[in-house]
Amino acid sequence: MMRRSISAVAAAGVALAALVPAVAADAAAPAWRTVQSNAKADYFGVAAVNSKNVWVVGRVSAKPHAWRFDGKRWIDTKLPTAFQKNTLLYTVAGSASNNVWVFAAHGASTYALRWNGSKWTVAHAWKSTWEVGGAVVNGPKDVWVHGSENGGFKFGTWHYNGRSWSRVKPGFRMAAGASVSSKNMWAVGDNGAAKPSPVARHWNGKSLSTVKLPALPVVGGHPAELRTVAARSSSDVWIAGARYVNPANYATLPMALHFDGKSWRRFDPPTKNDIVSMAQDGKGGVWAATYSELFHVTKGHWAKVALPTVKGKATRVGQLSHVPGGTSVWATGRFVWDGADTSTGAIFRY
């Protein structure tokens, strides 16, 4: 696996080529399928640590759950007693079977729960009710968690070094991250200013450095936003975000950037819907999801992929997670009745 220091990345030439390809069918690809559905469930975060450790967090009839798929069956792991009710599990991330983290809201605090391979323990608590947006776990001594757009990112961006948690200094407000290894993490967000500008950072295991990006669209004083990222190596990184087309009503269109180790190119998706999650496909491409669509991107070519369906319902996709070392990908989502405020939670697998 090729790795480049951020100094080399920042010094690399930046080329921008806006491409808007037509939608094509991905007929040769194996199909996505529904592996779990429950009319009383909401499935939120998903983390594929390996083929025998796929985690999903959510709730059933308002009761929180953290499920683990061991390669054959789903196991409903036991949460600490205090968190078995009146708790919202935001997100899950992990680096090994004995190093999985869940971030949860309970009472007037946000908690970090850690799975050691056999049980959950409370690892940390913040006196904060601001929503958590996501987390990246590079190893037992390298964990990142950040706030969500819904909460105005007010939770902040935090890093755990194996001993303590520290808040990332002003100047970077993380919206998403993707880990290649403990010394190669990519993150996107903004600079946290009153009028924020898009920012990408790279973590080399010791420090965060700014990644030089191409000039991004600014419309009516509103710069583009970077919202999600997927990385296979330092020469294969995807970033997706949104560019404003009418700031008066906050109308945006999605955009995507790819870094090949030397330069960035822009490959805008053939959709009007925002990209909410991305995951590598394990063979040089990437999966990209809007809430109502799923795309497979290979060599900059966007192919719309059929989602599992249920008669009379629309399919929605939330988070994506790639299984390391293979081509399998997992996703959380739901089936929604057309015109009704009810849904069936679903877990999908490719």
Descriptive keywords:
four-stranded antiparallel sheet, globular, 31 strands, Methylamine Dehydrogenase, Chain H, mainly beta, WD40/YVTN_repeat-like_dom_sf, Gal_Oxase/kelch_b-propeller, 350 residues, disordered N terminus, signal
Set out the fold topology:
Blueprint: H1 6-11, E1 24-25, E2 33-38, E3 41-50, E4 53-60, E5 63-69, E6 74-77, E7 87-96, E8 99-106, E9 109-115, E10 120-126, E11 132-139, E12 142-147, E13 157-160, E14 165-167, E15 173-181, E16 184-190, E17 198-203, E18 208-210, E19 218-219, E20 222-223, E21 225-233, E22 236-246, E23 251-259, E24 264-266, E25 277-280, E26 286-289, E27 294-298, E28 301-304, E29 313-322, E30 329-337, E31 343-349
Parallel strand pairs: 1-28
Antiparallel strand pairs: 2-31, 3-4, 4-5, 5-6, 7-8, 8-9, 9-10, 11-12, 12-13, 13-14, 15-16, 16-17, 17-18, 19-20, 21-22, 22-23, 23-24, 25-26, 26-27, 27-28, 29-30, 30-31
Number of DSSP-assigned strands? 31
Quickly give the structural class.
mainly beta
Would you identify the CATH architecture?
7 Propeller
Count of distinct structural domains: 1
- CATH fold assignment: Methylamine Dehydrogenase, Chain H
Helix content: under 10%
Shape: globular
* Overall mean confidence score, pLDDT: 90
User: What's the tally of helices?
Assistant: 1
